[in-house]
Amino acid sequence: MTLPSVTPDWAYEREHWRRGYFRVAGVDEAGRGAWAGPVTVAAVILPGLATDYPFRDSKQLTPAVREALAVQVREVALSWAVEHAWPEEIDRLNILGATHAAALRALARLNPPPQALVTDYLKLRAGLPISAPPRADALSYSVAAASLLAKTERDRLMLELDGEYPGYGFAGHKGYGAPAHRAALQSLGVSPVHRRSFAPVRALLSRSEPLFDPQ
To answer: Could you give all domains of the chain from N- to C-terminal order, each with its CATH number?
Structure first.
């Protein structure tokens, strides 16, 4: 089911502003459900001016529009940071734990630091006041801005991985479970950037399928 398009606003940020927390970081991730590549988390603090921005949930936008808006996010943000959790960390911590770890690293890099958080249902233990509603990337300007940085940066990395590991189609499906990706796994085996703890990949390893050979 396709969810209706929603225009973000400042409602969640205002809740924190009223309590005296004016540097509110939006946090969002990209790639959490993919079978390969990193999960990427961005944190963004926008100026607390209640300005209307064109930022939207990155899933609602074309790649070209996402790229243009990501440039604008970096230009207007008080601070921003992007961090990745790669498959080794995902397999060690599980996907939720790795997402939290990458989010905390991104928040630690913000300068000036945040005083409160709005996340897309990511209930971080960061020692800060937090709002974590579902669909926050569609409801909050700050989280929408973070979604743009996370998505565009992860897509860039997946294009690079497509060149390093040809045949898997990373440039197209970005590591998600598309039929072409499943077929490539069956044909080529598991690459170093696949998440071995994810069921479709683990199933191949349990059958002793060969690992990807770049030669």
So the answer is: 11-154 (3.30.420.10), 161-206 (no CATH)
Residue 19 main-chain phi, psi, to 5 deg: -95, 5
The per-residue pLDDT for range 39-65, each reduced to its tens digit, is 999 999 999 887 899 999 998 899 999
Q: Check whether 120 is labelled as a binding-site residue.
A: yes
Taking each helix axis as running N to C, give the angle between helix 179-188 and helix 199-206, from 0 to 180 degrees, rounded to the nearest 10: 20
Query: What tokens appear for 168 in the block?
Result: 């898997």
DSSP-based three-state secondary structure for 140: strand
Is 91 part of any known ligand binding site? no
Query: CA-CA distances (angstroms) from residue 3 to 7, 65, 120, 174?
Result: 12, 20, 16, 22
Three-state DSSP class for 180? helix
Residue 28 annotated as part of some ligand binding site = yes
Q: How many CB atoms sit inside 10 A of residue 168's CB?
A: 26
Taking alpha carbons only, the member of 106, 97, 127 closest to residue 26 is: 106
Distance between CA atoms of residues 210 and 191, nearest Å:
9
Distance of alpha carbon 61 from alpha carbon 54, whole angstroms: 11
27, burial (CB in 10 Å: exposed 0-12, middle 13-18, buried 19+): buried
pTM: 0.93
